[in-house]
């Protein structure tokens, strides 16, 4: 392959012609070739559809290749994953049979996605990438370590388990990467992260990336990083391509409002967020009953089911996904152009990550918030903290704000060829039982005929037939308690039946 024509031999995807915002276009004009990357790595980058570096990639890749520790902050959907994957792949020696980079992420879905980015960008390098997460077979993972592994993508708990058993050896691993670093250094994970670092050499290189950096990151940086190079591209917090609206609706009107949105908006794919697991499943069932294709995903589901939902939604087999905050972090599905907060989030951080699922990589998207009267204080607080304006929803939303007229230009997602197998024997978690995704009804339900209550007669006279018995489905209407006894859930100890004096 000559120096001049190697680009002509590449299998390039169709060019993405969608308009983009300055979030990713405001660069210094560098190209990937300016970073002196390996030819095989450049081939993988261009064949993945990457044309030129985004601002965060321009800033971080040269410093990471120079060996500096990095603390980088950039908006959701501006190319942070490639900002650490490319330096990792450039520095890995494929002939050395050791783990040379550990990439830690907070969720299992993000681990799947990140590992696929590593495989796609490094497909010409001969680099082996393994993804391992909780909820999958530990025995299978241990067997996979008999093969050469250069990059390990994982969630923290599983890495600590493997390192503690001396299965994963990080004693000579030069690269330690944390995506969504603010989440990784929260109270939930911080102690595990520090235990993992004890297995690394002291002269490792650490790369930390996130959209938000609380004080926990500062204390970790002072303790574990060596003269880190700090990058902050957050001149504003929200993506410019996302139009944000709110609608005040009562709780009982939310489903009707959602049905109206589905009928009026041109949705390519949408993610709908709820604040609790129970509401996720119930809403997905209701949306399916309205006649729209819909899946749901939350943390209590078996891992195998979560993988299947994530895979099929990415491939476009279902249009709508209802989920908890499980999928707020890092999940990159280019076809999602609408995010709906069915339940309004309580913190600015959660809001920022939720709406960042649309408008990926500078493209246009829509965020709609269904709010009750009690959410108005959170709305004001989030607007103040993020320095953004969430407008009242108009009667007609301009299609140019979120619709791509040519859907063929939307990049197809990376195919997940190897999904980790879940532990099929585990179906319950904290009393939860997974009953599968809601299925669309192929035939319209027949209206039920009202049941006629049986006619009771007086006691039968001698020689007459017996009195007919009430059928099984017949039941007397439930007793209506006085208003002061309505609406109290049983766990609060209020009487479910009124006292005798009320009867």
From TrEMBL:
It is an enzyme of class 3 (hydrolase). It catalyses: ATP + H2O = ADP + phosphate + H(+). SMART domains: DEXDc, HELICc. It comes from the Eukaryota. This is ATP-dependent RNA helicase DHH1. Belongs to the DEAD box helicase family. DDX6/DHH1 subfamily. Residues 241-401 form the Helicase C-terminal domain. Residues 1-25, 435-503 are annotated as: Disordered. GO terms for cellular component: cytoplasmic side of membrane; cytoplasmic stress granule; P-body. Its main location: cytoplasm.
